[in-house]
Amino acid sequence: MNKLPINSKWRLALKVIPFVAIIVLLKFAAHYFEFEFLSLNSLFTAIISANIFLIGFLISGTLVDYKESEKLPGDLSASIETMADEGLIIFKNKKSQEAKDYLLKLAQFNKSLIDWFYKKERTENLMKKLRSFNEEFLAFESQTQANFIVRLKQEQNAIRKMIIRIHTIRETSFLGTGYAIAEIITFILVVGLIFIKMDPFYESIFFISFVSFILVYMIYFIKDIDNPFGYSEGAGFTEEVSLKPVLDSQRRIEALCEELN
Q1: With the C-alpha atoms ordered 225, 229, 233, 236, is the resulting torsion angle positive or negative?
Q2: What are residue 196's phi and psi, to 5 degrees?
Q3: Could you tell me which of 63, 66, 65, 54 has the C-alpha nearest to residue 183?
Q4: CA neighbours closer than 13 Å in the CB half-sphere of residue 152
Q5: Cβ distance 187 to 154 under 8 Å?
Q6: What whole-number distance in Å separates Cα of residue 49 and Cα of residue 55?
Q7: Angle at the Cα of 218 (from 215 to 222), degrees rounded to 5?
Q8: What does the pLDDT read at residue 2?
Q9: Which residues pair with 38 in a beta bridge?
Q10: What integer best gives the mean pLDDT of the chain?
Q11: CA gyration radius for the chain?
């Protein structure tokens, strides 16, 4: 696993700190005005344990999609460059304009794919562009063997499957009702911590700071890894999978097209 830069690694923690500060200030206000009317008991600690168990369940579910998502940009890159290799073989063998145009079109498709990751391109339009390669495959029938066309179709199908999978992952939330109950329980627990009387007071500040930080942090963390393709959602998200394989493919295919000119 690549290490995140310090500013990215701690970004989520820094995002949570203001919420914790507000909670601590409310605790000071409750103590000052003597609004601490609740007492700490075993039932309250059991609710905290249950909430942590629920959060752990949500994390384990979202991590499955996240680990799969880490592989998808590399697989996309491999399929696109395999299609480029097939086009290059045809061009070197036949010196055909169709093969050259095909490589230029493939570079443009890869650019559209990158835009799609940032939601600058609609999924429907991207699928139409992928389907449009059928015209080039028809043109290649007289220029190459049938098994070359079969390999191109296989890679086209693999890219289509990966696009559909990525679209499903980023548009579907894992157990939205589970998120809702985790958020409700976390909110209730934080409110309870504010109005619970614990002596000495400085210990209560420590515990409310620690517990509220952990609970709020984990809620944000789950929402973050639930969409590992959230590039368009701003710098507040830190756990997106790397697009470097697709970006590298774009650079290599563009360099290849320049060599053919």
Answers
A1: positive
A2: -85, 135
A3: 54
A4: 30
A5: no
A6: 10
A7: 145
A8: 46
A9: 196
A10: 87
A11: 26
Task: Express each pLDDT in 74-90 by its tens digit.
Answer: 999 999 999 999 999 99
Q: Which residues pair with 196 in a beta bridge?
A: 38
Residue 81 in contact with residue 88, Cβ under 8 Å? no
Judge whether 21 and 213 are in contact, CB under 8 Å. no
Burial of 137 (0-12, 13-18, 19+ CB in 10 A): middle
Q: How many CB atoms lie within 10 A of CB 236?
A: 11
pLDDT digits (tens, 9 = 90+) for 31-45: 888 888 888 888 888
- Only one residue has tokens 């959230």, namely 230
Instruction: For residue range 198-257, list pLDDT tens digits in order.
Output: 888 888 899 899 999 999 999 888 888 888 888 866 544 457 888 999 999 999 999 998
Kindly provide the b/e burial profile for residues 24-34, where b requires at least 16 CB atoms within 10 angstroms of the residue's own CB. Answer: bebbeebbeee
CB 243 within 8 A of CB 111: no
- Whose tokens are 């145009």? That residue is 101
Residue 192 CB contacts under 8 Å (≥ 6 apart), including other chains: 38, 44
Cα–Cα distance, 216 to 243 (Å, whole number): 28
- The structure tokens listed for 245 are 């394989």
